[in-house]
Amino acid sequence: MTAGVPLCAIVPPYVLDRLAEAGHEPAVRSLALDAAHRAARLAPPPPVAASPALSRVIADAGHTQRLPGRTVRTEGQAPTADDSVTHAYDGLGATFALYADAYGRRSIDDQGLRLDATVHYGQNYDNAFWNGHRMVFGDGDGEIFGDFTACIDVIGHELTHGVTQFTAGLEYHDQPGALNESVSDVFGSLVKQYALHQDAAQADWLIGAGLLAPGIQGVALRSMKAPGTAYDDPRLGKDPQPAHLRDYVNTSEDSGGVHINSGIPNHAFYLLATALGGPAWERAGRIWYDALTGRRLPADADFTAFARATVAAAKARYPDQPSIADTVTASWAQVGVSPG
Length: 340
What we know:
Blueprint: E1 8-9, H1 13-21, H2 25-39, E2 56-60, E3 70-74, H3 83-103, E4 115-119, E5 128-130, E6 135-137, H4 152-166, H5 174-196, E7 206-207, E8 222-223, E9 232-233, E10 237-238, H6 254-257, H7 263-276, H8 283-293, H9 303-317, H10 322-334
Parallel strand pairs: 2-4, 4-6
Antiparallel strand pairs: 1-5, 2-3, 5-6, 7-8, 9-10
């Protein structure tokens, strides 16, 4: 992990904590690995030549904890028999496609960065993460979580942490951290919607749908449409996300509740996208993208600062359609955030 880049993992630590306290051994090991990743301060990797087109390299850790692992597929090579390799390769491509086609972005750094990923990391590792320069996927334990490469929105979520890293650089704690997580949920969902050709009304607005193993009482890790309803299971507990600022969770855990309170800006985006209608990556996504990449958003931005940035982005992008900026303001107001 490069210095200063936080470990951005898809499964919140409070979920793994609960499982570990119940004696679930894969969760115990996953928490230990995540703690080691957070504590690591490694030198950045050697520079990789930029490419004007999509360039992907998939490696296989072989169930070890050694990165990057053995290269098993590079750009343009035929699929292997390994579904995890195929899913990772396709998910990287789908994420690249959204950013390139919808926003004219050349990879996550806008400079043609090669997209690298490692599959089969660790033994039954219950997570996937972006470490500052690479996607890393566990296989899940098969009891609580399945293969983390199987959800295209998980891949889009994690790579968007890279986009945030190279743009606004939102700090990873409290409200800026919740925004960091929310931006990844927003664009992770848009990656899936773009790949499936869904408009805002057709989308499920779930993050990690299909990731929970059979028998777990839940549909996903998070719901942008209805935060707090993604799961309610004896082993996982109940989804703790609030949908409104009045229910904001003040906690010292999870870096100040970054995965919990992200439900508030997540819901604001859902409300905006469905109010505007059509493909969410177009107007709603464009506004969020402009706010993130406009170089005016401070790294310690709170919800109000980000809301103001999105209203300003809407006014700048759609000067002849003031109703769009008004809809952005109304969407934030519905979750208790006033851009004013």
